[in-house]
Amino acid sequence: MTHYFGSCLCGNAKFEVQGHFDGFYLCHCKYCQKDTGSAHAANLLSKSAKLTWLAGSDSVTTFTLAGTRHKKSFCKVCGSALPSTHDTGLLVIPAGCLDTEVSISPTAHIFTSSKAVWDEGLGDVPEFEGLPE
């Protein structure tokens, strides 16, 4: 069985995921843009993997947007996105909170009808290994 480990930015919340991912989606919906403050969320999904909190489960809180299926779990201390289990049993793991390397590539971009206007042609934008001077 595959094991993945993850944590929040402050290190207070730590977890393990045992199992396999069914998909890796880059979600461009307006809710995910608000959640991340970015162009999209990068979420790994699994219907069968098991989530175990190793530390800091009391610092994890969950927000569900009324009238939608949109749900986000995060650390109350640092605000980092963390895994959440939905009513359907679907486990959603924000890819960026994993400390273990994930070897799968994204499955698809979803909700592209809401894609940010500035999220086009990014391959032409200059790259820097650190903060530009």
Word description of this protein:
The model has no long low-confidence stretch (mean pLDDT 94). A hairpin with a 5-residue loop joins strand 9 and strand 10. The protein has a single domain, classed as Metal Binding Protein, Guanine Nucleotide Exchange Factor, Chain A (Beta Complex), CATH 2.170.150.70. It has a 5-stranded mixed β-sheet. The chain has a 3-stranded antiparallel β-sheet with strand order 1-2-5, with no helix packed on it. The protein has a 3-stranded antiparallel β-sheet with strand order 6-7-8, with no helix packed on it. The relative contact order is 0.27. It has one helix at 30-36; strands spanning 3-7, 14-18, 23-27, 41-46, 50-55, 60-64, 71-75, 81-82, 84-85, 91-94, 108-110. It contains 1 helix and 11 strands. It has 133 residues and is mainly beta. It is 5% helix and 36% strand. The N and C termini lie far apart (45 Å). The longest helix is centred in the first third of the chain and has 7 residues, at 30-36. The chain is globular and about 40 Å long. Residues 4-119 form the CENP-V/GFA domain. Keywords: Lyase, Metal-binding, Zinc.
Q: In sequence order, what are the helices and strands, one letter per element? A: EEEHEEEEEEEE
Q: Beta-sheet strand percentage?
A: 35-45%
Major β-sheet strand ordering: 9-10-4-3-11
Structural class: mainly beta
Helix content: under 10%
Task: Tell me the total number of β-strands.
Answer: 11
- By CATH reckoning, the class would read Mainly Beta
CATH topology description: Metal Binding Protein, Guanine Nucleotide Exchange Factor, Chain A
Number of domains: 1
Termini distance? Answer: 45 Å
Over the alpha carbons, how many angstroms does the gyration radius reach? 15 Å
Average pLDDT over all residues: 94
Mind describing the biggest β-sheet?
A: 5 strands, mixed
Q: Which regions are unreliable across 5 or more consecutive residues at pLDDT < 50?
A: none
Number of helical runs?
1
Please state the overall shape, judged from the principal axes of the Cα atoms: globular
